[in-house]
Amino acid sequence: SLLLMAAVLVFNGCAVKTSGAVRDDSSLTGVSDQLAPSEEYTGPKLRVGVVNFQNKTPSKHIGIGEAAADILGTILQKTGRFIIIPQQDVASILGQQAMGASGAVNPATAAKMGKILGLNAMVTGAITAYSEAEEGSDYLVYKKKKQIARVTVDYRIVDTTTGIQLVADSGQGVYEKKTGGALGLGSKSSYDADLRDGALRDALTKAMVNMLPQFESQEWSGRIASIKGRTVYLNAGKKTGLKVGDVLMVQDLGEEIIDPQTNVSLGRAPGSIKGEVMVTGFFGRDGSMATIKSGAGFKTNDLVKYK
């Protein structure tokens, strides 16, 4: 009977028991109230492009930069304040413009991306450290194990209209996962994306608490996509948060200012006001039509802003 009991114990321990699957962002950090969609927010949504994060870890952990961008895009989307441009669209334009990810977000290239994709801001960064550790305890025929992932993330937000860097900071994330099983049965470590993603989500959710005030202080702007007579077509519509009857001022992009010492773009000076348009309807996925109220000389890619 003792042999039978031992066999039962070993059999029950064969299947590895696991806890610690990737949880909601808020459960990792306790900042759910600060990141939850605001019922009071009715303003226009900023169009944001997230660039794949550089992998600067010594181990060059495969896929960690792409995972960071995916997770950050999801966190931004959940706040209800942003329209996230798909990564593949951003990557495609970066490739067409011969801009690698390492140089993608400087004043000149940020402004170019803003013009091509109609972005208000770009977010990028780097994974500078990543590690996994394992702790375990043996209890007769049973083994408990805890895997811990730690990550350090640098991140930047750049205004794609002016080329000005809004924020540059770094943060850390930690994620733990517990497993259990019979000694010698199913206790070997193997690659687990949950560890990586959990640590990234922890770091980036914390980072959002710092990012949100910077985004909220940024002025929204759209672009003129086309002009037909006195009808102006805009690259922002109902999905962005525009309403029929909204009056927007039209402004040119302004002159790009180049540093005479470094020959590097410092961003754009404020453009001149050309007039006003009023939203009259919507079309397509997220476009709107407007009529000219005042002014002249409007051109494709001119900015439209709330007064």
Topology:
Blueprint: H1 2-14, E1 17-19, H2 25-29, H3 32-35, E2 46-50, E3 54-55, H4 64-78, E4 82-85, H5 87-96, H6 107-117, E5 121-139, E6 142-159, E7 165-182, H7 193-216, E8 222-228, E9 231-234, E10 247-251, E11 256-258, E12 265-268, E13 273-283, E14 287-295, E15 303-306
Parallel strand pairs: 2-4, 2-5, 3-5
Antiparallel strand pairs: 1-7, 5-6, 6-7, 8-9, 8-15, 9-14, 10-13, 10-15, 11-12, 13-14
Walk me through this protein's architecture.
This protein has 307 residues and is an alpha+beta fold. It folds into 2 domains: 12-216, ABC-type transport auxiliary lipoprotein component (Rossmann fold); 222-306, Thrombin, subunit H, CATH 2.40.10.410. Helices cover 27% and strands 38% of the residues. The protein contains 7 helices and 15 strands. The protein has helices at 2-14, 25-29, 32-35, 64-78, 87-96, 107-117, 193-216, and strands at 17-19, 46-50, 54-55, 82-85, 121-139, 142-159, 165-182, 222-228, 231-234, 247-251, 256-258, 265-268, 273-283, 287-295, 303-306. Strands 1, 2, 3, 4, 5, 6 and 7 form a 7-stranded mixed beta sheet that branches. It is elongated. Residues 2-29 have low confidence and may be disordered.
